[in-house]
Specification:
alpha/beta; 9 helices; globular; disordered C terminus; seven-stranded parallel sheet; 36% helix; Rossmann fold
Length: 253
Amino acid sequence: MDSTARRILVINGKGGCGKTTIATNLAVAYAHEGRSVALVDNDPQASSTYWCEQRDESLPPVSLIAAHEPPKMYQTQTFRNRLPPEVDRVIIDGHSNARDRDLEALLKQADVILVPLLPSSIDIRAGGRFITNLLTHRVFRNAPRPVGVIANRVQPNTETHAKLEHFLQCLDVPAVATFRDSPVYATAAEDGLGVMDMKDCRAARKENPAWRELTRWIDDQPKAGLSGRNLRMRPRRSAGTDGKRLDDHPLTA
């Protein structure tokens, strides 16, 4: 993969958290900024691949790398997953079952890691464990890189939203974006769109500022292999004074 492109991995150990929604909409957000974007589909469910197949050619382009598919005869995996020329933003839709070598390979190719998290107790528990495992993974400890949590499908001012906000306050990992639980995302996905493509939709326009803030946060982060290696990101003690670790948090234990 091109070392000059900024590589953003979207991943969580639990399925159904909206990885593909985040990955496809982030790709569209960058495409509307005039970036040359590649979307790498590592998920065997191939949701990002299906999304790309529905996308109209008149829209800002997003190139697809179907990394979940095996290479053809006499073709290496490296050749199959090569990036188009001039790509400067690579969005990697990582699969939820990535373990061992698969997870190691995904971490090695990422400059920034985004973890979508839903505001339910089950998702918070699973997400907390995944973040703990991520931050203590050998590859990550050897070369730390920025990690951001995305609060996804949120209904503001609800009890579940409050639980998620409380949990995020107990992390050294920042909450870098919040996206509403809006049907506009499902509508967009069916037609290969991102919300930033839907200029005539009021609900979509309401989401646009959050996507712009997310791309700014990503672009402000150091690239892995440079100053990113000096980042210190690990589970911290909880917000209280009881000395509990992240994995002892009442929502993750």
